[in-house]
Amino acid sequence: MGKTLVRRQWLAIVVVAALPAVASWPHAAEMSLADAYKVIASRKLVDLTHAFSPTTPVWSGFGQATMSAASDPVTHMPYTVETAGFRATFYSMVGQYGTHVDPPAHFDLNGLTMDKIPLEQMILPLVVLDDTPYLAADPNHAFGVADLQAWEKEHGQVPKGAFAALRTDMYKDWDTDPERFKRSPFPAWSFEAIKYLFEQRGVTAIGHEALDTDTTEKMDSETWLLRNGHYQIEVMANLDQVPATGAVIVVTWPKIENGFGFPARAFAILP
Fold it and tell me: Could you tell me which of 114, 189, 192, 255 has the fewest CB atoms within 10 Å of its CB?
């Protein structure tokens, strides 16, 4: 099967879930699945995910990943193309590594695990809230309710069911200055803004560029959102390449039974 055909079939699957999100596009009410596919296939895609390796930034409490050649369990000889006709990698890492999903179960004994998060919550309208205008005066600015309300005056109210991502441009340090990426404190969310987004605007999930949700070590925001049944995506990239409104986010992760978190792949479909 050719790569082009695989891509088309995969995008067709995306379209099924995306139809509610594109309801505002011209003539959306009359769209067939084929029509919706043509719209999405014509749009630019932006990768919101970092590539990761054993040397990329991670919380010091977890430590770096290790990756080695998978080996025969009997002979312990590594599989190679030359000797076995294929190669494979053995990965050893914490679930919260690289761009990753935090399901409610990460902090909540009774919370949803990553395999239980509904498919409908994995493709959503995307809004990008921009924290960068505040960083010159406050490099560790916590995006607050007043900042959100100022954003809404310019871009309109955050729609119910959306994925709200916080742009800080921290992602640019991921490859160029990994140690600085791990800095603390750092720009992120305020607890009040998180509660406002979920309680007053009804967003489905949030995401950000940093390794954590909160600008302090108290973890109030992360604890609250996970223990209230919501998920988040951490360590996002390229949010500066996505408009404030109008895009759609697709985010996926392996369906690990009773999983507490794992690297995710997220991308935006631009309007």
Answer: 255
Handedness of CA 269, 239, 96, 233 (dihedral sign): negative
- Give the DSSP letter string of 250-270: EEE----TT-S-EE-EEEEE-
Rounded Cα gap, residues 7 and 209, in angstroms? 28
Identity at 230, one-letter amino acid code: H
Beta strands, E only, the chain? 45-47, 66-69, 89-92, 100-102, 123-130, 142-143, 163-167, 188-189, 205-208, 231-234, 247-252, 262-263, 265-269
pTM over 0.85? The answer is yes
H or E element: which one contains 192? helix 191-199
Q: Find out whether 100 and 262 touch, Cβ atoms under 8 Å.
A: yes
Rounded CA gap, 178 and 172, in Å?
9
